[in-house]
Design a protein that fits this description.
The complex is a heterodimer of chains A (about 220) and B (about 300). Chain A is an alpha+beta fold. Chain A has four helices and 13 strands. Chain A has two domains: about 70 residues, Gyrase A, domain 2; about 120 residues, Cyclophilin (Beta Barrel). Chain A starts with 5 loop residues before the first strand and ends with a strand. Chain B is of the alpha+beta class. Chain B contains four helices and 19 strands. Chain B is elongated. The interface between A and B is large, with 45 and 36 residues.
């Protein structure tokens, strides 16, 4: 059996800490709590702390500090059992016009009316698991089981910015024009990524999100 | 009127880059920055610029620039035929230019990115701590896009003391040296058995046409792994060599995603990243495990 957490070198300038091999919300809370502790300690020469589903990465300036040094500092910080901690969650409401090009197909494949799809998508408070894929793209879960579908068999080359989408047990907003294979069910005018803001991503790992239906 | 460089004939792909955008990976923002960082540092040092001064990263073809002020430039990175007002000029060395002088790059002879640095740096606005262009987000550089004909690039006024020449000639030689690209074992290295590692280390891969600032695909023998392909996505880094289901490697580069779910067999050492980044489509590459590129005989 692996003994978690595992610290590995990710590259000359980064280390990876693995807390589990399986995604769960509880693991995510541990990952983010550890990430926060590392960030708040302001370790010298650490440039970025990035939490993901079951892992976090610490990036550092390898010309100024060695992997061994950062690794032992990180091990001490995450080994502190008293500092388990809760998520510092911000609730973000995102207005959505449910006018996506895949809404009708999702409804048909799931044996629901379009209004039922919308109602199920709006009725939950989602939790943000991880930010990545594109600037400001945050994976939200868990979707109502009645809406779970695999990704589209042929991804779109160009998904419009602001598209609200679902795939598997997750939902997300595409912040920028990118390729994408998720089902597009709506649109928001809210800026998910704004380079004038710090942090530039509206929703980040640990936050809570509600989608609010708007008309017109 | 500010000092500017005017783009007379843009190549198919040129952007403004510096040392990159550090500190926003948790918002999904890649580091971006110069692909051949080592040459960039060298050119800035040559001109007495701050190491983080922005420059032009020029790729894919020829073109021309006009300097609308008297200044000093240095050109390096990929090997190219350079002419100032029609007269051949040397790479790596400081070049004094007068207002109205034209730099023409006929074509790139070897390598992938020609870097054109100017004394004082290219002074476009800083976005999230960097002047680097990130096309996918439309930020940095000149309006977040590639350079095009008629663009005017403002030149900054900060400049210090240039380094001495001997040092940068040595470093240029290092950047251009051959031999295998050195890697360290990646986080999922143990998912790959001895046969898979033998394939990875004994294959001469070719940089695929499907490669850009986000990632380089490599053509060659496929590598299989014993684990499940569905790893939870985890943070990635520049130089990470991922093995997707098809088995041929994809190397994450500067504008690539901050997270990924493919197993990473290995990660390119910092000391070899600039040289690897300069490999154009069709270039052969072999990998070796080692602590730096100087360990390989």
């Amino acid at each position: 059996m692996d003994e978690f957490p595992i610290i590995q070198q990710l590259g000359d300038d980064a280390l990876l800490v693995t807390f589990a091999h399986t995604i769960s919300w509880a693991v995510g809370v541990r990952v983010r709590s550890a990430a926060r502790r590392i960030r708040d300690t302001h370790l010298s020469s650490v440039t970025d702390v990035v939490p993901a589903y079951t892992t976090l990465a610490v990036y550092f300036d390898s010309r100024a500090v060695s992997f061994a040094t950062v690794s032992s500092e990180v091990a001490t910080l995450i080994g502190d059992a008293n500092a388990a901690g809760d998520d510092r969650s911000t609730l973000i409401e995102i207005p959505v016009r449910y006018d996506g090009p895949d809404l009708a197909e999702v409804a048909e494949r799931k044996g629901l009316t379009q209004d039922e799809v919308i109602e199920k998508h709006c009725s939950r408070t989602y939790r943000a698991y991880m930010t990545g894929f594109a600037p400001g793209f945050t994976y939200l879960g868990d979707l109502d089981e009645a809406l779970v579908l695999p990704r589209r068999t042929s991804p779109r080359v160009r998904v419009p910015a602001g598209s609200v989408a679902i795939a598997g047990a997750q939902t997300a907003v595409y912040p920028l024009v990118t390729p994408g294979g998720w089902h597009l069910i709506g649109t928001t005018s809210m800026a998910m990524f704004d380079p004038a803001r710090d942090p530039p991503a509206l929703v980040r790992a640990g936050d809570s999100v509600r989608f609010v239906r708007v008309d017109g | 009127m500010r000092d500017v460089i005017t783009v007379i004939a843009a190549p198919p792909f040129a952007t403004i880059q510096d040392l990159g955008r550090i500190g926003f990976r948790d918002s999904g923002v890649p580091v971006s920055g110069l692909m051949d960082r080592e040459s960039g540092l060298l050119l800035n040092a040559t001109l007495g610029n701050d190491p983080s001064a922005a420059m032009i990263e020029w790729a894919v073809g020829g073109g021309a620039l006009r300097f609308d002020c008297a200044t000093e430039i240095a050109v390096g990175g990929a090997e190219a035929i350079l002419r100032i007002n029609g007269v051949k000029a040397d790479p790596w060395l400081p070049i004094v230019v007068a207002s109205g002088d034209e730099l023409r790059i006929d074509r790139i002879v070897r390598g992938r990115f020609v870097l054109i640095a100017v004394r004082g740096g290219i002074d476009v606005p800083v976005v999230l701590g960097s002047r680097s262009t990130l096309l996918s987000a439309g930020i940095g550089g000149l309006d977040g896009r590639r350079l095009r004909n008629g663009d005017q690039l403002p030149i900054g006024d900060h400049a210090g003391t240039p380094y001495d020449n001997i040092e940068f000639e040595k470093r240029a030689a290092r950047t251009n040296s051959g031999g295998p690209v050195t890697v360290m074992r990646g986080p999922q290295a143990s998912l790959f058995d001895d046969a898979a590692w033998a394939t990875f280390l004994n294959t001469e891969y070719l940089v695929s046409l499907a490669s850009d600032r986000s990632g380089y695909r490599l053509d060659g023998n496929a590598i299989s792994h014993s684990g499940s392909a569905a790893l939870p996505s985890e943070p990635a880094c520049v130089g990470a060599i991922q093995i997707p289901d098809g088995g041929t490697p994809i190397v994450i580069m500067n504008d690539g995603p901050t997270v990924g779910g493919y197993p990473k067999i290995a990660v390119i050492r910092d000391s070899c990243l600039s040289r690897f980044a300069q490999m154009a489509p069709g270039y052969p590459v072999r990998f070796a495990v080692g602590s730096s590129n100087f360990d390989i005989a």
